[in-house]
Specification:
mainly beta, 8 strands, 2 helices, Nucleoside Triphosphate Pyrophosphohydrolase
Length: 147
Amino acid sequence: MKKHIEVIARGVCCKKGRILLCHSKGAGNTYLPGGHVEFKEEAKTALRREILEEMGVDCKVGRFLGAVENIFRQKGKRHCEINLIFVLDIPSLSPGESVKSVEDWIDFKWSSVADLKRNKLMPSVLCGVIGRWLDLKEAERWKTEVS
C-alpha cells in the first residue's frame, strides 16, 4: 500500500455571517469547498480550479488563513492530509440561495459560524478557529486533528 500525505486547498466563503459548506451526497459530515493540489500547482491555483470544476463559477482566492493537519478513516482506509485554508470570494453566490453543483456526487449549503459543529464540519478543529481566523484574532495558523 502506497503511503502519502494529500495536500488539499480549501476556501472559506463567508457572506453575511454565512459560510459555504460542501458535502458528499449521503454523507453526514461537511467540509470546506476545494480539493487536491496537483504536483507543481500552487495552492491558490488549485482552489480556483476546484471551484470552477465543482460549481462552474469563477472565484477570487484571498489571504491564507491557516493550515490543518488531519488523519481519518474513509471506507476502512487511513487518510492523511494537510488542508491549506484561504479566504474565498465567489461573487456570483448569495447566502440563502441554493448553490448548484457541476459534480453529481456533491452538494453545497450555507451555515452560520455557530452551526459549523452541528453541520459536522471536518476537520472538526475548524469549527473553533474559522471565526477567529477571519477576524484575525487567532495568531496560531496551524491546527491538528492528530492525537
